[in-house]
Amino acid sequence: MIVSELSTNAVTHTASGSPTGTFHVALALSKQVVAISVTDDGGKPETPHPAEPDQEATHGRGLSIVMALANHLGITGDEHGRTVTAELITPTALVPQGGAR
């Protein structure tokens, strides 16, 4: 769901949606975190932020959905290209060291 929402945003709201546009998806894993990043080709100078769409709207919920699913959301870059990263804490990161007692 996170990859779908971030990729859709890249194609819909940035130069990545142009005929020659591209975007890149990266996955980073550790024992504590799974990080999913989507980097676009740039577009508007404003940093994206979650919208509060009208209840009847059929779009505008992407970042809100990602924020609800992820433990942390980070946005870096500028109008020449942005990377949006969603981090999820892995279940093993929630287990105390030494296991359960």
UniProtKB/TrEMBL annotation:
Signal sequence segment: none
A GO molecular-function annotation: protein serine/threonine kinase activity
Short name of any one Pfam family annotated for the protein: HATPase_c_2
Region annotation (Disordered) ranges: 1-20, 39-60
Compositional bias annotation for Basic and acidic residues: 41-59
Keywords: Kinase, Serine/threonine-protein kinase, Transferase
Ranges of residues in domain Histidine kinase/HSP90-like ATPase: 2-86
Keyword Oxidoreductase: no
Name of this protein: Regulatory protein
Source organism: Streptomyces sparsogenes DSM 40356
